[in-house]
Design goal:
Elements (H helix, E strand, L loop, with lengths): L19 E4 L2 E4 L16 E5 L4 E2 L5 E7 L6 E10 L11 E8 L7 E2 L1 E2 L8 E4 L11 E5 L6 E10 L6 H8 L4 E5 L9 E3 L3 E10 L4 E10 L1
Parallel strand pairs: 9-10
Antiparallel strand pairs: 1-2, 3-10, 3-16, 4-16, 5-11, 5-15, 6-13, 6-14, 6-16, 7-12, 7-15, 8-11
Length: about 220
């Protein structure tokens, strides 16, 4: 865990040595950004939750949930993506509507996701840096849980499920096969924050066929 480790008191005529960099005959003070949690920018422990493209569609189906029962840590979600399986046609030229919810109870049923998995056919959570600590004991996730109590409706997206038409094929060829369910915040905005005893789930609202797709989620633990 890398954090900013010092501060200085600026007093006219005295003070501590600070880093500088020479550019065009002048020395400029070097600044390292720190996050509000004390971590230097780019060092917050980050993890990726990923599922294989094996989740068949279904009306009101819960595809996954992530739960923060750690008691003290805060999870921030930085990206949620849906990947359509282009190897398998859906059998119909229809898309689906997917919702993102904040949840108020840990999900039940389904398959508990492993940490540090290497099998591409199983849902897993892995650190972006192997020096990261393992997830807190209370943080857990389930693939296709039976229940996950909804608390707040956060976002939604319509997802094209295969390249059955020329228009859909063109979209995929232009890089739209991966659908972003939430947008990364610009500097100064809040990230989607999951506090202790909160979670979030991805739920399919409507469906006119049987698409196959997977998910990827980037999140930090602070």
């Amino acid at each position: 865990m890398t954090q900013a480790n010092d501060s200085i008191t600026v007093t006219p005529g005295t003070g501590a040595t600070v880093a500088t960099h020479l550019a065009n005959t002048k020395e400029y003070q070097v600044i390292m950004r720190a996050e509000p949690n004390g971590h230097l920018e780019g060092t917050v422990p980050t993890y990726t939750l990923i599922t294989p493209a094996t989740s068949a569609g279904g009306v009101n189906k819960i595809h996954l949930d992530l739960w923060n029962g750690s008691g003290s840590n805060v999870i921030k979600i930085h990206g949620v993506w849906i990947q359509s399986d282009l190897d398998a046609g859906s059998g119909a030229n229809k898309g689906m509507l997917v919702d993102l919810y904040r949840t108020s109870a840990v999900g039940t049923g389904g398959t508990t996701m492993t940490y540090g998995g290497i099998v591409s056919s199983a849902a897993t959570i892995n650190p972006k840096d192997t020096a990261n600590a393992s997830l807190p004991a209370g943080v857990s996730a389930r693939f296709q849980p039976a229940t996950a109590t909804q608390a707040h409706w956060l976002d939604y997206i319509y997802v094209a499920t295969d390249e059955a038409t020329a228009a859909q094929a063109s979209a995929y060829n232009n890089g739209y096969a991966i659908n972003s369910l939430i947008r990364s915040p610009v500097r100064g905005e809040q990230s989607l924050t999951i506090r202790p005893s909160e979670g979030f789930s991805i739920v399919q609202r409507t469906n006119g066929n049987s698409p196959i797709f997977g998910f990827m989620i980037d999140f930090t633990v602070e």
